[in-house]
Amino acid sequence: xxxxxxxxxxxxxxxxxxxxxxxxxxxxxxxxxxxxxxxxxxxxxxxxxxxxxxxxxxxxxxxxxxxxxxxxxxxxxxxxxxxxxxxxxxxxxxxxxxxxxxxxxxxxxxxxxxxxxxxxxxxxxxxxxxxxxxxxxxxxxxxxxxxxxxxxxxxxxxxxxxxxxxxxxxxxxxxxxxxxxxxxxxxxxxxxxxxxxxxxxxxxxxxxxxxxxxxxxxxxxxxxxxxxxxxxxxxxxxxxx
Length: 241
Known about the structure:
Layout: H1 2-15, H2 24-54, H3 60-124, E1 135-146, E2 149-158, E3 166-178, E4 181-187, E5 198-202, E6 205-213, E7 219-229, E8 232-240
Antiparallel strand pairs: 1-2, 2-6, 3-4, 3-5, 3-7, 7-8
């Protein structure tokens, strides 16, 4: 009997669990921590979702500052664009002015040459008579204008008192070197007839000028101008090139 009670007590002892009772202030503090942590997680999650959905929150002051920077950059861009347009316009004006000045310089050069010829002409008027019967080749110039083209200028004059109109023609004789040989060339070509002659009709002076086409590979060594009156030689002058 005693043995049976001993085994009953031992069996009950094996089923017993020892528990420790926590004080309620500690439980309340732990609940507050859990609630606060949950609230923080919820707030962080809301802000994160808001940032993804709507972007970061920007204050009105930040918006105004950004707008001010945009306005300043736009103003600087407009100033630079205006300056670039002004510089481009000035460059175009300078180019146009340079072109005009170049053309004016060419015109003045040509005018200078003409004035020199006129000066030589007026100086030659001082004698009472020039050359046989008052007719002379006062001035002759010749130079290569472009490849294969000879440019000539001749001034023919008649001096003396009571001079009458002179009517005749001028003929040019060119001394050329071609293929190592000296050849003569007449201009205008005698075969050209009356229409091709360099006709003269003047009382005091007449200026003749033009271009002569040269044979291929020919070099001009000398030019002679002859003044003819009904086939008779009245005056002549030669120059070497």
